[in-house]
Amino acid sequence: MQAEDETELLHARPAADQPAAALPSDGRPAKARPSDARPSEGRRVAIVAHRGAPLVARENTLPSLRAALALGADWVEIDVRLTRCGTPVLLHDATLDRLWGLPRALADLDAAEVAAVTGPAGERIPTLREALPVCAAAEATVMVDVPAPDGGEASLALVRELGLLDACVFAGDLTALTRIRAASAAARIALSWESFLPPGADLLARVQPQYLNMEHHRLTHPLVAWARRRGLAVSAWTVDRPARMTRLARLGADVLITNDPELALSVLTPAGGTGGVGRAVRSS
User: How far apart are CA 53 and CA 70, in angstroms?
Assistant: First the structure.
């Protein structure tokens, strides 16, 4: 997910009402519960740290995730792609060029080759298996964003293996989300959407999301109302300007995804309120 008001850090190499479709029986179906997205004290809007805290540490690395959690983010968003051997790792782009200075496609590298790539401060590309426990230890919800069709099922399988299905929300490529839903009735899904018009009934029936995950410039009162009528919570990405954060909160967004969680927490936490309390997206 990448909106036009993201910081330049993310664009340059860093220096240092339809019937439900049939679903598999892997436990009770996920339910649309907007209240899950909201902190229970002070703030109404949950803050999602986009790729960790990219203003503090290199995006989609363990230091970035830890920095976001230390700042008090409610959720952490990560991007997951597959290596040549099928290992899920944290990387937004299809290549390692922008972030790691290596003009190679991730799909052409195996896990060992990816693990050998390091940044100037010793940071490296973590596997999803390494990243999830970091967030789980902080009881933070993880938005697993899958930018390509082939990453969904592998990510879902690992999340299930680690027993963290209730702590994750899947977003990203529509084909990947459709495959995740076909494999799991219990998975929580944020339907990533970039149109002023709502998603069609056929797509909703296939994906059965719990969140409408909007590019923030396209979120409107009618779309929020449309989502509410269908029991969907609303998330918006990627928001880095204080005035826009405030406007989206007033518009009815339940979840805001940002590159600057510290700023978002300061803007949206009322005086005397507490941040970092809206972490769980877990079944009761």
Answer: 10
- Averaged pLDDT for residues 94-121: 97
Which amino acid is present at 212? L
- Residues 185 and 28: beta-carbon distance below 8 Å: yes
With the C-alpha atoms ordered 250, 193, 232, 93, is the resulting torsion angle positive or negative? negative
Question: What is the residue whose two structure tokens read 């059965």?
Answer: 208
Three-state SS at 80: strand
Q: What number is the average pLDDT over the span 159-178?
A: 98
- Say if CB 221 and CB 227 are below 8 A apart: no
Helix axes 62-71, 128-137, angle to 10 degrees: 20
Q: Which amino acid is at 125?
A: I
pLDDT at residue 206, rounded to an integer = 98
Tens digit of each residue's pLDDT (9 = 90 or more) over 7-25: 333 333 333 333 344 445 4
Domains of the chain: residue spans and CATH: 34-268 (3.20.20.190)
pTM of the model: 0.86
The structure tokens listed for 271 are 């005086």
Task: Determine the Cα–Cα distance for residues 266 and 264; give it in Å rounded to an integer.
Answer: 5
Q: Give pLDDT, residue 270.
A: 85
| 131 residue type, one letter | A
